[in-house]
From TrEMBL:
Protein name: Vascular non-inflammatory molecule 3
Organism taxonomic ancestry: Eukaryota, Metazoa, Chordata, Craniata, Vertebrata
An annotated GO BP: pantothenate metabolic process
Similarity comment: Belongs to the carbon-nitrogen hydrolase superfamily. BTD/VNN family.
Organism: Fulmarus glacialis
Residue ranges annotated for the CN hydrolase domain, each copy included: 31-307
Keywords assigned by UniProt, alphabetized: Glycoprotein, Hydrolase, Signal
Amino acid sequence: MLPSQPLLHAAVFALAVLQALASDTFIAAVYEHAVILPDATDEPISPDDALALMNRNMDVLEGAIKEAAQQGAHIIVTPEDGIYGWRFTRETIYPYLEDIPDPAVNWIPCTDPTRFAPAPVQERLSCMARNNSIYVVANIGDKKPCNSSDPGCPSDGRYQYNTDVVFDPEGKLVARYHKYNLFRRETQFNYPKEPEAVTFETPFGKFGIFTCFDILFREPAVVLVSELQVDTVLFPTAWMNVLPFLTAVEFHSAWAMGMSVNLLSANTHNISLAMTGSGLFTPEGPAAYHYDSGTEEGCLLLAELSARPRLSATYP
C-alpha cells in the first residue's frame, strides 16, 4: 500500500533533517531574479490583476526553487521586490499586500489556506517549500489594520510593511521580518515602531534575516551577529550598484568577512537601474557570486557552506 501524501511529506522532511544533522555543512542557493514589473499607474488595479502579475513572477521563482532542490539545496533566498517589483505609491501597492501572521501561530498555508484571510501568495510559497522539501525565503508585502487610538496609525487605517517570510521544508511559516531601515524611495511602506531581530533555528545552524538597506545599520544587522550569534544571514535585496564603494558583490562579501558569518545575498536583476550582484558569501570570502550588467537574464547560484562557521577551524 502506498503511503498517504502527509506521511510521505513527513518522511521526506525527516530524512532531510537527518541528512543535515549528519553534516557540518549545508547547500545554500540564491536566485537573482529579473522581475516582471507592473505597468506604471496612479490608480490601484484589481486584486485579481495584482495576483496575476505576482503569479507570473512566482512561476519563474518556482522554476528556480525546483532546480535548486534537485541539486540538493537545503535553503533558497529570493530577492527583495521579487514578486511584484517597485513601481508603486502607497495606494497602488495595496492590492498586492497580504496579512502575514506571526509565525507563532504554527501555520502551513499550503495545507490550511483558509485559516486566515485570503493569502494566495503565502499559500503558493508554502507549497513551493513543501513540494520541494526546501526552506524558501521570499519578500512580500504585509498589511495590518490600525485605528485612531493608535497615535501612529496612518490616515488610511493600516500599516504596510516591506516583509520577508521564510517557509520550512514542510511549508510552515517559521519567520517574518518587517524591514526597519527603509530606503528613501519606499514611501509605500511604514517602518515598524521598533526594530525587529528575527532568528530561527535549523538543523544546519542559527539563521537571521534582514532586508537590503538594513545592512548599513546597527539594528538589526550588527545585533543579529554580535548579540544573537547567528551563523547565517538571509539577505533579500534590490541593490543598485554605486561605484566604486557600494557595489553589491564587493560590499556584501566584505560584510560577511567582517562579521564572520555566512551571507546569502539574493539581488533583483534590472540592468537599467544597475541592479545586479548576488552571492553566497562566507567569512573566508565568496563561495559563489554573480554580476551581470549586460543581459536581462536571472541566475541561480548554489554552494556548500559551513553550517556553523564560528566552530570552524578556519574561523577568522
